[in-house]
Amino acid sequence: MKHFKSGEYISQGYYKSFQPELINKQLQIKNMEVMQLLSQADREIGRLDMYSKYVPNIDLFISMHVLKEATKSSKIEGTQTNMDEALLDMEDIPLNKRDDWEEVQNYIKAMEWAISELEKLPFSSRLIKNTHKILLQGVRGEKKQPGEFRNSQNWIGGATINDATFIPPVHTSIPELMSDLEKFLHNEEIFLPELLKIALVHYQFETTHPFLDGNGRVGRLLIPLYLVSKNILKKPVLYLSDFFEKNRKLYYDNLMIVREKNDLDQWFKFFLVGIIETARNGILTFDNILQLQKNTEENVQLLGSRAVNAKKVVDYLYKRPLVNAERVSKITEISMPSSYKLIADLEKMNILKEVTGGQRSRQYIFDNYIKLFR
């Protein structure tokens, strides 16, 4: 993209903010390496999307994809909750870890709400604001205008604005920049492939940094939302936070290269490699889930008269792979003593594994399943 201009630094007295150019305009791709990666990414996403059609009860497994995304995206922002902890109820989380745990739970709620809202609300600033509101509800960022674009200057990196690594545009330009981003998303006269469109939108959103807090998480969340809204994916099964987290320095460096060198091609290449790797990992995960499902069902059938209740528990575990005896009793509508017997059977089959180590309030995980997402 020879003629792409990202923006310019503007003096604000004792600091310089970056003012992005508007993006709602025609762009031409001339880099053959980008085109080759785009072709590859399209193929891999198509393969991944096939699982949405052919995997029975795929919605059960999507919950775990969302949980993994929530922990990885939050980890980029410094949150320390891991997948195993994210599955626990709040009362089982130590007090010093509850803030992190709540941020991850909010991410899950925000993602699930946004996906369901797409059925009646277009991909828009309104959807983005409402998603942001859920993300910051009752957590550390709750005083930072949840659901509203910022009305003051923010910055990235550094304890103060003087030693910041990047200073986004002044708050007065946010409405115009976000309106332009929304127009670009819906402009059918711009013939840019959808994967490059969302790559540019993610870059522009992170550069604009329209909120006082939560920009990174919302910006990453926009990617699967857009792919679902455009029917590129039937279900939200592709999340880039794991790739961004593993390549965190490259992620930030490539965003800065666009701002400082107008090199959008480099960002496109990085983004498309992320799509390819993530889609391939997703395909592998689904293959492993199907194999695990087959093996587990064969084992459960060996339980004879208890197989029906065991299957109810296993189906629940695909959605939330952590249970206790009380939960098993509710799922199956059997007595507590019968629940403990069923749990013991599932332990012998290596389906459940006790993780608390105590005699009371024991928790059991579907360890072989969680391992596929770790």
Summarize the structure in words.
The chain has 374 residues and is mainly alpha-helical. Helices cover 58% and strands 4% of the residues. The protein has a 3-stranded antiparallel β-sheet with strand order 3-5-4. Strand 1 (7-11) and strand 2 (16-20) form a beta hairpin. The radius of gyration is 23 Å and the shape is globular.
Can you tell me the residue ranges where pLDDT is under 50 for at least 5 consecutive residues? none
Mean pLDDT: 89
In CATH's first tier, which class of the largest domain applies?
A: Mainly Alpha
Our measurement of the CA-to-CA distance between the termini, rounded to an integer number of angstroms, reads: 37 Å
How does the major sheet shape up? 3 strands, antiparallel
What is the helix tally? Answer: 15
Strand content: under 5%
- Based on Cα principal axes, name the global outline: globular
Q: Topology as H/E string? A: EEHHHHHHHHHHHHEHHEEH
Please tell me the CATH architecture of the largest domain by its name: Orthogonal Bundle
So, the CATH homologous superfamily of the largest domain? Fido-like domain
Care to count the β-strands? 5
Structural class: mainly alpha
Strand order of the largest sheet: 3-5-4
Radius of gyration (Å) = 23 Å
Number of domain units: 2
The CATH topology label of the largest domain is Fic-like fold
Report the helical percentage. Answer: 55-70%
Write a concise synopsis of the structure shown.
With 374 residues, this protein is mostly helical. It has helices at 32-54, 58-76, 83-86, 98-117, 125-136, 174-186, 194-208, 215-229, 241-246, 248-261, 264-301, 307-319, 325-332, 336-348, 367-371; strands at 7-11, 16-20, 322-323, 353-354, 364-365.
